[in-house]
Write a structure and sequence with these properties.
The complex is a heterodimer of chains A (91) and B (202).
Chain A: H1 12-19, H2 25-36, H3 39-56, H4 68-88
Helix pairs in contact in A: 1-3
Chain B: H1 12-15, H2 22-42, H3 47-64, H4 68-71, H5 77-94, H6 97-109, H7 119-145, H8 148-158, H9 164-171, H10 175-199
Helix pairs in contact in B: 2-3, 2-7, 3-5, 7-10, 8-9, 8-10, 9-10
Classes of the chains: A mainly alpha (91), B mainly alpha (202).
């Protein structure tokens, strides 16, 4: 895992792995001291954690949309009604 | 068109004013139809009546959309949409005694948000329902643009709560890679959700 080219901070990917405890022991040691004293990295880590917590609130979201077919039917029905209104003309 | 029209032509909301813009309408029905359907079911309507409510709601919005720009100082678009949905719901409830009885039965079984609930409570419910709907649509967009394996690595960790090590080992990637995939896609998911919200914002 590399450092960010423009600064001495670790790359975003390194920070992600750091947050998840996925770095090797030596990599973790290498970055820990920096991260503990770097406001930018601290903020980036906080933002990643926040995002992970947000994802945690989505746990009940299934991949299949139970309303997908219904939405198609609604759209077709609304279009039909609107066309009918248009053809009726002004009253 | 009003001189002070603040809507940009790039937003789906602005495009709603054009009845012929089917993709904008399809987007609207896909986002709000399920919310109104759930609202109707929550108020005790059966599936068929809830279907009818969604259609009535959509027709009402289509009809009102061209003049929407003149009314928007009265509130946000999403608040207006919620009001339209509630008005249609009240209209259906008023006109059908059988449904009112069904509603009573429903209330005694499961006290929930009722038509007499404080508006804030309903607004909060609507807000949450809209949020969930936006996220689901964002998730679908993300899925359609992402390689299946990568999406699964993200989904199983972030949304199913499976341990990083387990997912990484199942898909034959390092823990580090699995973690990076999860975080990158999480950011893209958030960006997509923001994008959908922006499409429907003034």
């Amino acid at each position: 895992m590399n450092a960010n080219a423009s600064t001495c901070c670790p790359s975003d990917d390194t920070l992600y792995a750091y947050v998840d405890g996925a770095l090797t022991r030596s990599e973790r040691r290498r970055w820990r001291r920096h991260i503990e004293h770097c406001a930018r990295c601290e903020a980036a880590i906080a933002s990643s954690r926040e995002l992970s917590e947000w994802a945690g609130t989505l746990k009940s979201t299934s991949l299949s949309d139970p309303h997908a077919r219904r939405a198609q039917r609604w759209f077709a029905a609304v279009r039909q009604k609107l066309n009918a209104h248009t053809h009726e003309g002004p009253k | 068109m009003a001189i002070d029209d603040p809507l940009t032509s790039s937003t789906l909301l602005a495009r709603l004013r054009d009845r012929g813009d089917e993709s904008a309408w399809r987007g609207f029905v896909t986002l709000y139809g399920p919310i109104v359907f759930r609202l109707a079911r929550r108020y005790g309507l059966d599936s068929e009546s809830a279907d009818a409510l969604v259609q009535a709601f959509c027709v009402r919005v289509v009809e009102a959309a061209p003049s929407l720009v003149y009314d928007r100082r009265r509130g946000r678009f999403r608040d207006w949409v919620r009001r339209v949905a509630l008005n249609e719901l009240r209209r259906i409830k008023r006109g059908d005694a059988a449904r009112a009885r069904a509603l009573e039965r429903y209330r005694t079984k499961r006290p929930a948000v009722s038509s007499e609930s404080p508006p804030e409570r309903l607004a909060r419910w609507w807000e949450q329902a809209e949020s969930r709907r936006v996220l689901r649509l964002a998730l679908e967009r993300l899925r359609s643009e992402t390689a299946p394996d990568k999406f699964a690595i993200f989904y199983l960790q972030a949304m199913r709560g499976l341990p990083l090590g387990e997912v990484a080992s199942f898909y034959g990637v390092t823990k580090c890679n699995a973690s990076v995939i999860k975080h990158r896609l999480l950011r893209r998911l958030k960006a997509k959700a923001d994008e959908i919200r922006a499409e429907w914002s003034e």
